[in-house]
Amino acid sequence: MTRFSILDLLLSGTLFAASVMSASVVHNIDNTSDHDPLVLNLLLDARSNGLSNRVFMPHVSWAKASDHDLLNYKTSLLNRLSAISIPYAVLLCRDLRC
Predict the structure, then answer these.
(1) Is 14 within the bounds of a domain?
(2) Which of 39, 47, 59, 98 is placed for a possible disulfide with 93 were both Cys, Cβ 3.0 to 4.6 Å?
(3) What are the angstrom distances between the C-alpha of 97 and each of 72, 85, 87, 93?
(4) 85 lies in some domain
(5) Which residues span the domain enclosing 14?
(6) Number of domains comprising the chain
(7) Predicted TM-score (pTM) of this structure
(8) By the 8 A CB rule, do 42 and 16 touch?
């Protein structure tokens, strides 16, 4: 399968029936993309949305990484991947459920 619709995965079945009041596609001649925007009129229960404290999760800024940082990362990744033991039976498996 080379193409699929994310919308089909997100708005299917019960969620679609319970939440989407109307849906339309905006065909605009000025839109140079091969995608057309969707307009959805949703019925959602806002009371179910809770607030939580924002938690900072540090992440790597690849744009700021030096050549030395990248080399260290590659070396660490290679070492960790090399340490993974893959059972031989897994490599021979032809069944999707094995």
Answers:
(1) yes
(2) 98
(3) 37, 20, 15, 9
(4) yes
(5) 6-44
(6) 2
(7) 0.36
(8) no
